[in-house]
Amino acid sequence: MSIPSAPVAVPPIVVSRARGDRVVPVWRNELGGLTFRAEPLEGAPRYIKWGPLQNETSMAAEAERLEWAVRYAAVPRVIEHGSDATHEWLVTAALTGESAVAPHWVARPAAAVVAVGRGLRALHETLPVGDCPFEWGVESRIANAAGRGIHLPESLRKAPDADKLVVCHGDACCPNTLIDGAGKWSGHVDLGALGVADRWADIAVASMSTEWNYGPGWEDALIDAYGVKPDRERIAYYRDLWNAT
Known about the structure:
The protein is an alpha+beta fold and 245 residues long.
């Protein structure tokens, strides 16, 4: 996953969804998907996600989750979702701030990891578990993996007892937190796997991603900003589960 550094061919469906606005590529994922910012001459920008249909994640699932979560938290408002025989797309309104891995924040990792940790805690405290219709617990993740032909080792089939159930982001890697100009978290994006699970399922992945994005030494700083002590057993389990699925 990365910010594109070379010219990107804009798919025709993205051109049509941009409706004449300037289109800027802002993200490429490992599944071949692209995200573009559509910049009108007047008014607010929009974001257009485009990618191949596949069974690991679904933009339809993300649209459904965003439409639920936007009532409670700073997440993108869905404008449009669609698909054809091979690809799908999702158009959302822009939020304030920029990704925690924008060059400005990569150069300031101490500030970025604090914003990500605090933002994740705020998301967990804001989204209501009792009203959430989506599941991201271990059993559902194992079943999803099996449906994709991934057979997990026995060591991953029994999770540690849950510490605290929350509505997890589902992909809490640092790029998916937005930070405003004052250095405070301002929103969350890419919530296609959002659902109820132990909070360590998110914390483990968010802290692990600090090394990919900022280099070694920032994991515990993010956990401290979240407001808990590192739970090494749960961290190890949920990182192994993440990497295996």
